[in-house]
Amino acid sequence: MSTERHLTAWLKTKAPGELRDLLAGAGYVSDGGVSPRDLARLLLQYPVALTALNSCTLPEIEALSAVAWLAARQHGDPPSHYWHGHDPGDRAVPRADVVRLLAGSDPGARADAEAVLDGLAGKVLVLPPYGESVVVPNAVHLHLTDAAGLGRPAAELMSAHFNAPEVHRIAGALGLAKAGTREVAQRNVLAVLTDQARVRELLAVGPAAAREWLANIAGNGARVQTRVFKNDAYTAKSSFRAAGSADANTEWLAARGLLLPTGAHDVAEVPIEVVTAVLGEPRARFHPRPPSPPLNLPDISGADGSAQAAALAAVSQLDRLIAACAVQPPSIRKSGGLAVRDTKRLAKTLGLSEEITRFWLDLTVEAGLLGAHAEPVPRPKGHRGKLPEPVMTLLPTSAYDEWRTGRTEERLVRIIVEWASVDAIFTYTADQDGTPVALTEPHHPFAVGVRSAVLEALAALPPGKGTGPDALPYLIARATWHRPHHAADMPDMTGCMTATLREAELLGVVARGALTQPGHALLDLLRASGPSEPSTDALVAALAGMLPAPQVTAYFQADLTAVVRGAPEAALADLLDGMADRESEGHAVVWRFSPASVRHALDRGHDATDLLERLAAVAEAPLPQPFEYLIKDVGRVHGRMRVVRSGCCIRSDDETLIDELAGTRALRALGLRKIAPTVLISSVGEAETLTALRAAGHTPVLEAETGATVVERTATRRANLA
Predict the structure, then answer these.
(1) Which superkingdom (predicted)?
(2) How confident is the model at residue 200 (pLDDT cuts 50, 70, 90)?
(3) Could you report the per-residue pLDDT of 675-710, keeping only the tens digit for each?
(4) What is the dihedral of CA 367, 22, 34, 130, to 10 degrees?
(5) Mean pLDDT, residues 65-73 taken together
(6) Which of 144, 175, 206 delimits the end of a domain?
(7) Which helix H or strand E contains 367, and what residues bound it?
(8) What is the pTM of this model?
(9) Which pLDDT value is given to residue 531?
């Protein structure tokens, strides 16, 4: 019976929920029901198997490599097109042989090997039901046959990578009689290399250092990097380097065929027959336990407070960043990415480094809170040609309006989950010489796997302990154990790991080198698999438990600052942002009031009495007198002059002020002209006139033709492109 029919019959015994879970374990999510036959075909497909391989731990990869190696020894190497149209059941191997190859006779290691094979069935990388045999998908045979670290047969290596002169040279070094042909010489050499007794005799008379070096290579994957062979890129053949390898032990082994070329540049391999002669029964590498944390790790007292401050700062900075983009949208370059000058401007506005500003920009775009917007180009009157391309800017999306009104923990969850699932490490820059640009970070296909592995490594730390710079090698080793495929293929693992930890700290997922409670909840979320999206309720609860309740009051101080201890409620933040400038944030947020900030509030249509009443309503104690003096003083002079729309005119009941404006050198660009004791006319429009007057330190307001004050409000704009 074919593997597909075997698998279909077995799947028919499963409930629908179990079938969906099998798909999820293989990395394939389906919303609807799948028939057992269709599911069997799907699970045998090449891409599904590769997806499951990418999520394997080191012992799982080692077990699958052992299966593939045994299958190659028993059935021969699979052809390159083996994944298509071939039944994987044709390459079944005995389960007992797999366990023996991984664990030998060690009872504990054998139990670990059995457990790993059982776990692989949940990912459909060991195909049930075959009883005493192990069958794996064709993708495993194609990708892992050479990964077991046991070496290939000497005959295969010599035939593939040596010409006749090298074979005759090895025969001579072994003291064999000169042969007339390459075939005879190779047969004679193989007779020695495949005879365990003769190999041991050869090693016994050789240098002790060479024997130790051979045992080291054989016990650590059978391959070694060396320059003893020179490769021909066109023929895939190798020859001995005339200059040698600068390693006498390696040269002694290679000269006698105990170390043979692999075809890869500067890589040699110990044949399996020699490995067996040196080690006895072959043993594949098998690491069922992850690396243990180092000793003397630092304590993490105060980590909860650091995480709380980081989480509060993250929400505040994100909110202010998006608000700043709404007021003055940054430009998107035609070549892609955000204009560097706009990133610098935003960083200065927020009081953040450019690196963190780029991180928040990238993350908010990924989360759908900011999006590209095409500014329409108006067609000039009489213009019939092609209009220029629309100017692209970055604006808040409609999703931001909903996000803005949510609870603090809910708002942060959206950002954290997006960070955990994005295929990029935003703060990692491979090109240190170039200028980093927001919204252009390269795609990292293994970023999600490495990020998950980093959290796994931190979760294994003893309670109350964190990591420092000295623990980075442990984190890399542990991450590699959890996601060997991802870590091995990630360029500059140290740089990527450091950037990942930094980003996690900015979000409150990691603090002082340790996983926080939200970090543990996020790891559980990443571990979860199922037919539908896993719930974020646990992460929301963890954040809610860490963050203080939103504050609805502020403490006003005589130095004209307002302090909110914790996260301000959105309405309170809007009120204070509209009247003052933020100075700092973290465990507490501090605003500073000034004449300019109060004037901005009055420009938006409020009066001094209204502002004082609104501040008093949110004050924890009576407002200090300096606040009353400041707001009343600014309110007293606010609107003493009026900019009239028709004209544009400037009017004021204060004739002295009118004379002063007419003679101010800083306002000459306005072309001011006095037409009445209380009226000036300007040669430019109302907006430019208002801007110039305010820049000169005055406090004008805009007046309609009816005489009513016009409240200046920034129009709400949202991105028109997803």
Answers:
(1) Bacteria
(2) very high
(3) 888 888 888 888 888 888 888 888 888 887 666 776
(4) 160
(5) 91
(6) 144
(7) none
(8) 0.74
(9) 42
H helices of 28-57, in order, are 36-43, 46-54
Give the CA radius of gyration of the chain.
36
**Cβ-Cβ contacts under 8 Å for 319 (sequence gap 6 or more):** 404, 573
pLDDT of residue 671: 85
Burial (Cβ within 10 Å: 0-12, 13-18, ≥19) of residue 11? buried
Q: Are 207 and 252 in contact (CB under 8 A)?
A: yes
Least confident of 44-48, 351-355, 414-418, 686-690: 44-48
Close Cβ partners of 296 (under 8 Å, ≥ 6 residues apart) = none
If asked whether residues 179 and 64 sit together in one domain, one would say no
pLDDT of residue 27: 63
User: 259 and 340: one domain?
Assistant: no
**CA atoms of 223 and 403, how far apart (whole Å):** 55
CB-based burial, 621-658: b 16+ in 10 Å, e otherwise: eeeeeebeebbeebbeebbebbbbeebbbbbbeeeebb
Q: CA angle, corner 554, sides to 553 and 556, nearest 5?
A: 145
Domain assignment present for residue 500? The answer is: yes
377 in the Ramachandran plot: left (φ > 0), alpha (ψ -120 to 50) or beta? beta
Domain end residue (candidates: 526, 546, 566): 546
Q: What is the identity of the amino acid at 319?
A: D
Shared domain check, 351 and 241: no
Residues 352 and 460 in one domain: yes
For 347-386, what is each residue's pLDDT tens digit? 998 989 999 999 999 999 999 999 998 877 666 666 666 7
pLDDT higher than 50, residue 722: no
Both tokens assigned to 605: 């249509």
Closest residue by Cα to residue 583 from 563, 603, 598: 563
Distance CA 324, CA 346 (A): 7
CB-CB contact of 139 with 71 (8 Å) = no
Cα(first)–Cα(last) distance of the chain, in Å?
Answer: 51
Residue in 556, 58, 565, 597 with CA at minimum distance from that of residue 66: 58
79 & 214 share domain: no
Indicate whether 307 and 189 sit together in one domain. Answer: no
Specify the pLDDT at position 242. 86
- Count structural domains, the chain: 5
| Residues 356, 266 within the same domain | no
User: Long-range contacts: 570-575, Cβ < 8 Å, 24+?
Assistant: 570/404, 570/405, 572/618, 573/316, 573/319, 575/614, 575/615, 575/618
Mean pLDDT of all residues belonging to the chain = 86
Domain of 449? 303-378+389-546
pLDDT at residue 530, as a whole number = 45
174 pLDDT above the threshold of 90:
yes
Residue 296 lies in a domain: no
Same domain, yes or no, for 505 and 361? yes
Whether the pLDDT of residue 33 is over 80: the answer is: no
In a domain, 285, yes or no: no
Q: Is residue 714 part of a domain?
A: no
